[in-house]
Design a protein that fits this description.
With 265 residues, this protein is an alpha/beta fold. It is built from seven helices and nine strands; from the N terminus they run E-H-H-E-H-E-H-H-H-E-H-E-E-E-E-E. The strands form two sheets. A six-stranded mixed beta sheet has the order 3-2-4-1-5-9, with helices on both faces. A three-stranded mixed beta sheet has the order 6-8-7, with helices on one face. Helix 2 runs parallel beside helix 3, helix 4 crosses helix 5 and helix 6 packs across helix 7. The radius of gyration is 17 Å and the shape is globular.
């Protein structure tokens, strides 16, 4: 059955400035490149069948570095592009919180009820996540998926059959990428749960990561500072955990000024 290694990329200048990246294409900064070297070292014993990446930076560069070390093939999946935050992209989180306090609070607590100006809805993002996963899980045993936050946390929730959730906070508290392994009972995408709640889904799994709206989730290797947890019944067979240093072998189970819109490849 498939094992999915969900990887958050290294950081960008927007992360360090606490700006909302969304689908904007931004390169890794100096700290981000150092973080990727740590990721590569941590993943060196994983025998990936393939690594899938979101089509934008910094996910693409992070995935390329992992594949160069592991020899795995790399495939871009447009469905794993980050959540489109529309006109909020490029803004600092503190500015959004100050200028739009009611909308920001609603976005944090019930993101499914808010459509950001010129952005996409959570339900639209979940549908494309499911579409992308259906293609990626076929005939694969160990796959990597590199995606930025908040989409990475949403992917983890979908894989566990939970209600999609965001990391609990938009504020970037740390700048270390996180890795999470999710073991599935079958190559089928679990049936979706119902309403989205920030930090409260329908499963027992826990997703660790920060920067719900920053382009990358940067938490500790075993637990990020932002935490989206769920308390209901989890989809059977989906088991999630963080991976500090990995010992997973195939034979064992074998910035630039922002634009208002990011380019989707």
């Amino acid at each position: 059955m498939p094992d999915v290694v969900l990887i958050r990329p290294g950081c960008t200048d927007f992360d360090e400035q606490n700006r909302i990246q969304g689908v904007l294409d931004l390169p890794l900064n100096h700290r981000g490149h150092a973080q990727v070297l740590g990721l590569v070292a941590q993943l060196q014993e994983v025998s990936f069948d393939v690594v899938f990446t979101a089509p934008c930076e910094p996910a693409r560069s992070t995935a390329q570095a992992i594949c160069e070390q592991s020899g795995a093939s790399l495939k871009e999946v447009d469905d794993f592009r980050n959540l489109d935050h529309g006109l909020w992209q490029g803004l600092q989180v503190d500015d959004v919180r100050r200028k739009y306090p009611k909308v920001f609070k609603q976005w944090q607590e019930s993101p499914e009820t808010v459509c950001l100006p010129e952005g996409e809805t959570v339900s639209e993002a979940v549908e494309r996540i499911r579409r992308g996963l259906r293609k990626c899980l076929k005939r694969k045993k160990i796959i990597g998926i590199v995606a930025s936050e908040p989409l990475a946390t949403m992917i983890g929730c979908v894989l566990r059959g939970e209600r999609p959730a965001f990391p609990e906070t938009c504020d970037r508290k740390s700048t270390r990428p996180t890795i999470e392994r999710i073991s599935l009972a079958s190559p089928e995408v679990p049936e979706p749960a119902a309403v989205v709640r920030n930090g409260n889904g329908a499963g027992n799994g826990t997703s660790n990561g920060n920067g719900a709206s920053n382009g990358s989730a940067h938490g500790e290797e075993t637990a990020g500072n932002g935490r989206a947890s769920s308390n209901g019944a989890s989809q059977p067979g989906a088991n999630s955990r963080s991976i500090p240093p990995l010992k997973l072998r195939k034979d064992a189970g074998k910035a630039a000024p922002p634009s208002k819109r990011g380019a989707h490849e």
